[in-house]
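Appendix B. Chain record.
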Amino acid sequence: MELVVHKISGEATDRKIVLDDSIFGIEPNDHAIYLDTKQYLANQRQGTHDSKEKSDVTGSTRKIKRQKGTGTARAGGIKSPVFRGGGRVFGPHPRYYGFKLNKKVKRLARKSALTYMAKDNNIMVLEDFTLETPKTKEFRKILNNLGLGNKTSLLVINKADENIYLSSRNLPNSKVLRPEGLNTYEVLNSKKIIIVESAVKTIVEVFANIK
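Structure tokens predicted for this chain:
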């Protein structure tokens, strides 16, 4: 697939770049996408929820009434779940939600996600640029020039650039990642993926090194 390289002003240059079909043109696997997205979202969960069961509640353990003859159900103690302030039955406890996923499945899922974006013409190649100072206004201007505005976008840069990162982090619909950080969820959650020119080759190298 061949794409035109754009300037940060939004204008098209006379240069074109070819996207590797082994990454941007494979046969997509929807189940791999599902598994990788599920794992990503599971890893975002803190799992710190907790509740007190009968043995955790502070209170007396004495029998609050006699066993028989009251006309009501028997009750062993005030900490019983049937009473106000008692323990919770089968309540949540801290746990880890993550699960193992093979590297080959992850690689297939991410290639599939990039393929879907490429097929829908939602990938744009941008000339390499940098910002002298971290300014959200300047970064927003670039997005507006590219016709993205408030659309959800993902910018893939070749190497860490603190000014670009700081300029974008205050925009809720904008995300900046390096090729090593590409994941299925972020790719498919974006309306448009902007890849800087030098990062295209790095993406190919990163996926080639994932065994």
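Further analysis of this model is presented in Appendix C.
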